[in-house]
TrEMBL record:
Stored CDD domains: ABC_cobalt_CbiO_domain1
PANTHER family associated with the record: HEAVY METAL TRANSPORTER, HMP_THIAMINE IMPORT ATP-BINDING PROTEIN YKOD-RELATED
Alphabetized SUPFAM superfamilies for the sequence: P-loop containing nucleoside triphosphate hydrolases
Protein name (record): ABC transporter ATP-binding protein
InterPro entries from the UniProt entry: AAA+_ATPase, ABC_transporter-like_ATP-bd, ABC_transporter-like_CS, ABC_transpr_CbiO/EcfA_su, ECF_ABC_transporter_ATP-bd, P-loop_NTPase
A GO term, aspect molecular function: ATP binding
Pfam families assigned to the protein according to its UniProt record, in alphabetical order: ABC_tran
Amino acid sequence: MRRIPLNRSEKPLLHVDQFAFAYENVKEKPVLNNISFTLYENEVTLLMGASGSGKSTISLCLNGLYPEAVEGFTKGNIYFEGINISEFSKGELNQQVGIVFQDPESQFCMITVEDELAFTLENINIPASEMPQRISEVLQAVGMESFGKEKFHQLSGGQKQKIALAAVLLLEPKLLILDEPTANLDPVSSMEFIQLIHRIKQERGLSVFIIEHQADDWMDMINRVMILGHDGNIVADDQRDVIFKDKKQLLEREGIFLPRSHHESFWDVNTGSTTFSNQEVCLSVQNVTFKRKKNVILEGINLTIQSGEFMAIIGENGAGKSTLLQLIAGLLKAEQGKIELFGKPISKWKENYLRKRIGYVFQNPEHQFITDTVYDEITFGYQLNGYAQMDMDEKALHLLKQFQLENQKFSNPFSLSGGQKRRLSVATMLDETPDILLFDEPTFGQDAQSTKELMRMIKELQSSGTAVVFVTHNMDLVDAYCERVIVMLDKKIGFSGSPQELWRQEKILEKSRLRLPYRIRHKVGKGEKYDFVH
């Protein structure tokens, strides 16, 4: 493998030397397998790899959280500015190597923004008299200067992620690690966060280490790309354009998304519009309003779902998309109005029958895990329904292979990677073929290979008559697969129609913080006119 030449102007910042990591209970199967690389000052490096390959594990090892925070085993060495990280006192390295995770709430300890940032400063022994000035400066740096008194539950996903970044910046790190930081953000919030990182990197001269499945929106700031293979080895490490132009076959073999500027045909776009006038209505939502602690979340929602249709529910963070999905599934109860499944109020269905007719895949896969092994999770429904052991084994083996989980058969579901957890959460819904399958961010954390396989299986279910409903921030997925799209706006349905109609609604897209899909942005970039876009 060709390495980046070391005769460069930037100084080495962090060096990984023949480093391996394995969980204590599976020492014979290391997650990271004798990897070596160097990160340099003022450099932006992108790490890509298949879901479950160990990308997040690398980040947690780089700042010393692993193996201390888990039962893990390491060999080899990591050096920060020439010093072995094992020589740093507890918490010292975390100031130099800061991490922003994909879920900002996992990093918060306090109720309000100011208290959270003050807590960060207390941990590094900053005098109380200096805290207000430092907090004010960092909030201004991330564009959140007026949010100091706000409570976290009142912030959008994008705002929370900016505060998570602010807390890390207070530590004045030299290396900033971003672990899929935009995964939970709406399209505009995602772009705003990336632009913020770009600006702060330039202002502060930080080194940035980005972990992402899709590189498109980061391309302007990336210097270098590293690829982590399925076997835990670094299989490519070179300049951005060299990787994406010359290593396409390797990336495809590893199941990695190529930037759409280098590979436009990933999605098989559905340009035709399907009508469902002759299809049976399987679920109806009639004048539904939902409140949470007297706050109106959704108001006057009217919606029908027809057998065999593929529909998306989209909108900005906090628009009520997941709430609507949970109401449809019968997991939440409406304040007023009614929801009927095949003409019968869902409140009148027995729970076990309702769960057979409506499958629900949570945004957070952990919320639906109830057993200790992947096999038991997949076969739980079969066991309840009295399947013979041989039949259960046969069905489970088929699903394990389909979802690339056969090597995790006896693993604890909570020990899986984010992408593996998502695949397992979908597999558990397929013990029966439901009438409606509801997904909250189905492709979150998935590599290209897993995404394609997941969408293939979902399309098969749709063709057999299952209605499919996605809550998603991925406009390219909506553009390629969905026949109808619902936009949540101001607590109501602000738009209902085909994706092709939506892409022409400039005001709705702007209000909902949505972006046009790449297919259309690319056409416009080539000089093609698309209604309102010039």
